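Input:
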Amino acid sequence: MLQQAFNGLVGGSFYALLALGLAVIFGMLGVVNLAHGAFYMLGAFGAFIALDAFGLNFWVALVLVPLLLGVAGAVLERLFVRRLTPLDPLYNFLFTFGLALILQDLVRREYGVNSQPYPRPPELAGTVDLGLFTYPAYQVFVLAVSALMCVAVWVVLTRTRVGMIVRAATERPELTRALGIDVGRWVTPVFGFGIALAAFAGVLAAPMRAVNPLMGADLIITVFAVVVIGGLGSVFGSVAAGFAVGLVSALGNLYVPALSQITVFILMAAVLLWRPAGLFGREEAYR
Amino acid sequence: MILSRLARSGRGGIVLLVLGLLAALVLPWLIYPPVALDIACWALFAAAVDLLLGFTGLLSFGHAAFWGGSAYCTGLIVLHGGMPFPVAIIGGALFAALLALPIGLLSVRLTGIYFAMVTLAFAQMIYFVANQWRDVTGGENGLQGIPREFLGLDLSDPFFFYYAGLPFVLAGLFAAWRIVRSPFGRVLVSIRDNPARARALGYPVERYRLLAFVLSAALAGTAGGVFAIGHGFAALDGLYWTTSGQVVMMVILGGIGTLWGGAIGAAIVVQLQDFLATAGFEGVGIVTGSIFIVIVLLFRRGIWGTARHLLISRRQADPPVSPAAGAAEEPVESPEPAPAPASPHPAGD
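Output:
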């Protein structure tokens, strides 16, 4: 039971990281990034390629791959996303859908649909005694580092000047601009950062999940449901919902295994019924 | 009655209608019959999605649930119920409408991008259910070997089945056209253009949206049912979110808010995919994804939309014929869809 709860939290940390990236991007640009799952997949493949072709270990990949993909995301924003942001947000949604198809099939063409092996980093190969039960060290690391990442982003958003600008631009873009802050300057880095978060989650996933071209495709829709539960545009809500959904799904899996994949959608339906704006969303955010 | 209505909307309408019907009738002579049937099914599917996107201002990214769900239901009715396929297709369409009721009830509370996300998520739920409920759906294998015999007639030849399936598609397209032209359809358009005003005028906006959603699902279900019978199977990937995306792409390629444009989009996409598959090209997604991006970036009016735009601007150069008729004929003045809640975050340049 406790162990299952722990599994849930580990699974939830991936939801949280991905939902956080989505929320940050949505907040700043008003873009729902359907290609987020594809970037998560690219992150895992990046780790695999780094090891396979360049002999770079997990730790290097954990820093390098998100950095590179973050830059790629920033370029993407400059070249394409920017052209569509003044239009109906649906166009960017569709743009990123096309992008996801392309990225997925490019990787599939190159590596096939079979999963690529990726070893655990040797430093984290063993298990950790958590008092009540022992647990694989790597999973503990994933949970810790994800939680740390979410807290770090939270601190940056709430305690620093950059975060203040981003939050202000998220809530009242015109007013922020009127106060003499160059909002446009922050759009590209924030988009890149959101993508980097997805890639970071992907690298983390490589040693414990199957690395294949479709690994992000299913996950991203579940993360959408998580974001709807937390309240789209609410950074805190997305992270909290990520961990909570992971926990609830895992416990649900314990009692009703048949529903394991569906729990999150049932939760979403319940939240929509009760609070259409999401648990932490503001009413005005969706009207 | 139909003809008189058409006549009122100008002679061009009749000519186009006749041309369209002719094209639908000779299609299996021109191209490989199974591909022709695919085009017909996707054309109806696209019209169903356009009913929502182009005329109600809601982008559903979860219509795979109705297309695929109906495919399974249709297949089950034939396989286990032993019913003739027309009954099964109608059953599938009803099932799709039934499925759309709870999904729509929850989703229409949101609009714009939120609506797209939520419908996408619900469709994915249906996908997971179908994937896990192996006893009924066959899991990853799907339903196979759905027979298509009717009153002793063997319709296993795709050429003949095309003509057995076509009436359903045409009936569905006709229904979509009637809905759009009805007073109900006018209310939908007004909701699309200005939900606040429609609400102020006393229209229950959510209820209209829900009804449009259910009707659209029923049409998508009809298309999915014909597709399932035509192929003899119902597959899991019909429920996957890429199916929802593909149909939206056809609608945009043809032109949002044009209803018939989707048929053109369907013809192009299906043909292209067939061509790529025959050529042995792996990674169809690279091509379709690229097309999608190009359309979204550069060609948002779509084919039919562009043609109509050219036509309208030419007609407006001439002395006006009859402003009232003109206004009634063109339901969509703006080529952009869903003037949805203007993004609260314009790109900050």
